[in-house]
Amino acid sequence: MKFQRYIQNHQNQITLISAILIAVGYAGKYLLNSTLIYDWAFIIASIIAVVPIMIHAYQSLRVKVISIELLVSIAVVGAFIIGEYNESAIVTFLFLFGSYLEQRTLSKTRQSIKSLTQMAPETAIILHEDGTQEEVDIDDVDEGDHIMVKTGASVPVDGNIVSGSGYLDESVITGESKAVAKTQGDSVYSGSILGNGTLTVEATKIGEDTTFGKIIELVEDAQDAKSPAESFIDKFAQYYTPAVLVIATLVYIFTRDFPTAITVLVLGCPGALVIGAPVSNVAGIGNGAKRGILLKGGAVMDDFAKVDTFVFDKTGTLTLGNTAVSAVKDYANDTNEALALVARVERLSDHPLGKAITDYATNEKVDFEQLEVAENDTVKGQGITATIDGHHVLVGNLKMMTANNVKLSATQNQDLAEVQHTGSSVVMVAVDGALKLTIGVSDTIRPGIKAQLQALRDHGAKHLVMLTGDNKITAQYVAEQIGLDEVHAELLPEEKVEYIKKFKDQGRHVAFVGDGINDSPAIATAQIGIAMGSGTDVAIETSDVVLMQSSFEALVHAYALSKKTVINTKENIAIAIGVVIFLLIGLIVGFIYMASGMFVHEASILVVIFNAMRLIRYGKMPTQAQQTATQKTSLT
Question: TM segments (predicted)?
């Protein structure tokens, strides 16, 4: 056991020694004209290099697997029998060198996971009740502990801020590089980095239970999960490798040509075929992980590539899930004065519509806080009346305007109908008996979503559907603005499931995109469930794809990436099969021999790896400027 471990730990050094001995052998023959040096250098190189190969072959046989290493081992023994020491030395060196390059190249495809695990905090500073601080191992932190996070440090737990404020880089969780302002009462994620300030955080989740811990576990599991192509190749290899042994035996029986039979063993190694699909999936999943896209394995990638119908929830998916002013119809001589009056009135209320209006006034740089409210009264079912700076102000619905004899002109009635048609909630503002503003407040459509939906179509989506529990007027308006094919409104969760089943019965391959919480039945029913969420437990655990940024740019990239990965996998399989056919033809024709065949074989492994590595760089990472521009983009 110790000997095996020693050989495995020093395999790279053995490869280097083998290369040196091969060089010495050729130097002895061509520079010193010594066949003794030539033969012994290759003999020693063969023996040294074949040891780790035979160890792997033995370990595979112990679990009843006929591996590639067994084929090479038999081929080397055969080469020794016929005295082809140079062939055996070159074959073993190429095999070890190919294994070295393969592992080195594969490690690059896992850099996203390595970088994640390296970001995981190892220690935490606990604040005790007596005010003292103690730095402890992360495994010694308990839920409920108060943790201090200093500037530049990584947050070690999921929790809530008890005191302090600062800007946090949450890119490790969301993939979004823009710093996020956090203050008392806000939640924080493990792995986030504090850019400034000092925070005290109460731990709510620790260790593997944190969002960051689940992300690492999910991506690691995903890279080990097999696609249908991988599963097929694994089964194929189980039968293919023994078949090569049988074919080599038959070649010898019928031809009595031992060198040719040995060469068949070498050329029959299915290395590129076995590795082609896994390396593509690993690279594709790693690409997504760098961008905050979690794809749960090769099977998910394969299913996602087949999707032709995207079904969307509305609130929090197609829209941002927060109310904002969507329309302002102005009839005042001084718009800022009217807006200041309504904002001052709404400051008296905690209604979500009121907050949307005060936020709008603040963004418009309207100064309203200093206005003096003499009196105010809430009229149930209508709105608020107030006296501000000597003006009588009415803020409410049409019923309030009618009750207070505020007359609307034909134009104002038309504007009112237009705002109502969008499905927006309407707030009407009258000052001193005259209508001054009609304000529409609605859930905000995601910026730039129309272009992103078109991008989904460009990549192969045929049907874009909205299923929502919201009212028909609002749903239809949103669908018209962003260009959906179908919209079904006022649905219960179980009714959404029925629609998805209906689409599947029609032969469509369906992906449901929701927030990962109230839409979990629909997510589970669709062939692919996609959660637009910032790392909620339900989103991570129930969906097939998690978009940590909650962005449609990420959705488009994930869809395109899945298709690209499946194509890349097929390319690798085609390359591997093509090489095997080429080698067999070359063997029959007579221009391929053991050493040259092994060289082509190892080269084919590297070709499929490098082909897969193109997936790591697929799609450009958005710059900070592009992300900012996207946020400012509005629907046209």
Answer: 12-31, 37-58, 65-83, 89-106, 236-255, 261-286, 573-593, 599-616
**Close Cβ partners of 438 (under 8 Å, ≥ 6 residues apart):** 327, 328, 329, 331, 412, 415, 416, 419, 426, 427, 428, 429
Give residues with Cβ within 8 angstroms of 423, minimum separation 6: 442, 470, 471, 473, 474, 475, 476, 477, 478
Q: At 417, list the tokens.
A: 């109908």
313 among known catalytic residues: yes
User: What residues have CB less than 8 Å from 177, skipping those under 6 apart?
Assistant: 169, 171, 624, 627
Non-local (6+) Cβ contacts of 322 within 8 A are 443, 444
Give 626's pLDDT tier (boundaries 50, 70, 90).
Answer: very low
Tokens of 449: 């979503």
The token pair at 378 is: 């809430």
DSSP string, 149-185: E-TTPBP-SEEEEEE--EEEE-HHHHS--S-EEE-TT
Q: CA 246, 248, 250, 252 torsion: positive or negative?
A: negative
- Quote the CA–CA distance of 616 and 628 in Å, as a whole number: 25
Task: Tell me the pLDDT band of 629, cut-offs 50, 70 and 90.
Answer: very low
pLDDT in tens, 140-169: 889 999 999 988 888 888 899 999 988 887
Tokens of 146: 């108060």
Amino acid identity, residue 516? G
Active-site annotation holder among 169, 313, 470, 544: 313
What's the token pair of residue 569?
Answer: 């996998």
Residue 220: the pLDDT is 56
Segment 394-426, tens digit of pLDDT? 999 999 999 999 999 999 999 999 988 887 889
Cα angle 467-471-473, degrees, rounded to a multiple of 5:
100
Tell me which residue of 366, 312, 334, 522 sits closest to 436, measured CA to CA: 334
Adjacent-strand bridge partners of 154 = 193
Mean pLDDT is lowest, of 211-215, 340-344, 557-561, 583-587, for: 211-215
pLDDT score for 478: 87
The predicted model gives 544-552 an average pLDDT of: 83
CA separation, residue 189 to residues 41, 219, 517 (Å): 59, 17, 19
